[in-house]
Amino acid sequence: MSHRNAVNGCRLVAVLLLLLGASAGDKHIRRAHVSAAPDSCCDYASSCGSAVCVRLNENLFDSLQAAEHPEHTAHSSVGLDKVVLVIQSQRNSFHARRGGQRKAEVLKQAAELGQGVPVVLLLHELSEYEGDWSILPVLPYLSANYGQSASWFFFIEEETSVVLPALLQVLQRYQVQEEWFLGKRLQDNEASIIHHYAFSEDPSSFSYPDPAAGWALSTPLLQRLTERIQHEPPKSDFTIDLKHEIALYIWEDGNGPKLTAVPEFCTETKDNCATTFASYLPNCGDPVSKNDVFVAVKTCQKFHSERVPIVKATWEKDAGFLEYYSDVTDASIPTIRHCGKTFAILRQFLSKALPKADWLLIVDDDTLISLPRLRRLLRCYDPKEAVSLGERYGYSLLQNGYSYTTGGGGMVLSRVAVSKLVSSGCHCYSDDAPDDMVLGRCITSLGVPITHSPLFHQAQPYDYSETLEQAISFHKHWNIDPVVVYKHWLQDTHPRDEL
Fold first, then answer.
1. Pairing mode of beta strands 392-395, 293-298
2. Average pLDDT by consecutive 10-residue portion of the chain (499 residues)?
């Protein structure tokens, strides 16, 4: 059988299954039929009468989803006044400013369009609680204030552009009385440590949204989630990868809706896109000087000969000032202090013993990092503010917990933030306490926002599904050649500047 005949035969079977599902009274039966369709024709091989198996492409899957739900073609009457657009802004002044600019752009576009005005909210302004970034804590507010008037809640990043007419066309395909979870589909290619190895037998069987492209909840779903979190919060106390954890909570072990893929939710500009995304590494001007960043590498005796040479062979040369902090003295490694390294680093950074740099970067000895890209990013931030920057995790955020930047991905602190920490008297409660969490708890208590950048990574490149071309850091040397990973993901091809 030819490849084309195999594809056509499998498509025919898929359509027949969909028609069968459409005639069934149970909605979950219809979903069961289409859930088999996207992955391959192998499930239908016996019906096709062929052993040839071909993978249906993503566009076909989206078409099958539309066929499964004929109500998609029967437009619902949704105007912009029925949309609440939530910009996932941050409290830091740079991000607050970018979020405000995005809000102004959306409202200006709505005024010119003349089809109603959406409610546009900046996430960081909804309350004083730092943990609102994890979305679930803010759902009760959204439900109470807009649940009766809105049909859709659409979440975007600060750098996500929205074409309102195209967004309306997308939302009008779906019946607003039903539960919908819409987004650009991401899937794991292999079991990921940051997702607790979920769906390890078939990681690509579960989809979650790309926040850069925007994602939407229908009001019935948001209201049910609001009720559920009161008596059934997420099982884990930790928030690690928000987009994946949100999708898991919504899916509810198969009792809730899966993500519906929307091809018009884009990160790159294409025809018919309702959203596009700029970059997590904006151009804010020339990079800060390499002498404005002091780099502290935490290590210990057993890794002096194993990990430190990797740092020296890869990214150490891009540092203006760098020191290693260990638990023993080694003639080849400048060492200071002992175990409790992090708070010793904070104190020494403020002392006259070190050059007066604006920024402190604390990394592990198995962190791989691009210092040139970091210096580009730091140009966006004001060192005269208290800044804590990195990959943000959360602990017990539904119970007034705290956020923190992960140590493995790299913790960046402005001199002002370090000064606040040291003068507060904050300290490790034990020598083996996780220093990144202790710092996060202290910083939160001081009212300093934890600023998130997805360019920092606590894990390895292969644990992430999204595009990583502009990554700043990765962590761990397990089962990889760290030099190869550094050269592929982090080393810039243009000549280093020597500022």
1. unpaired
2. 42 40 37 36 36 38 44 67 98 98 98 95 97 97 98 98 98 97 90 74 86 98 97 91 95 96 95 95 96 94 85 97 80 49 92 92 97 98 98 95 96 98 90 89 96 95 77 94 95 63
- The amino acid sitting at 136 is L
Could you tell me if 141 and 460 are in contact, meaning their C-beta atoms sit under 8 angstroms apart? no
pTM to 2 decimal places: 0.82
Instruction: Tell whether 136 and 261 lie within a shared domain.
Output: yes
* Cβ partners under 8 Å of residue 386, min gap 6: 414, 416, 417, 420, 446, 448
> Where in the sequence is the domain holding 321, given as residue range(s)?
290-490
- Residue with tokens 């019946």, as numbered in its chain: 175
- What amino acid is encoded at 227 in this protein? E
Please report the DSSP string for 327-341 in residue order: SS-BTTB---S-SSH
| Rounded CA separation 411/297 (Å) | 11
Report the amino acid identity of residue 330.
D
Which of 157, 248, 152 is closest to 199 using CA atoms? 248
- Interatomic CA distance for residues 475 and 470, integer angstroms: 15
Count the domains in the chain: 3
- Asked whether residue 225 falls in the same domain as residue 162, the answer is yes
* Amino acid 350: pLDDT: 96
CA angle 488, 275, 28 (to 5 degrees): 95
Containing 359, the helix (H) or strand (E) segment is: strand 359-364
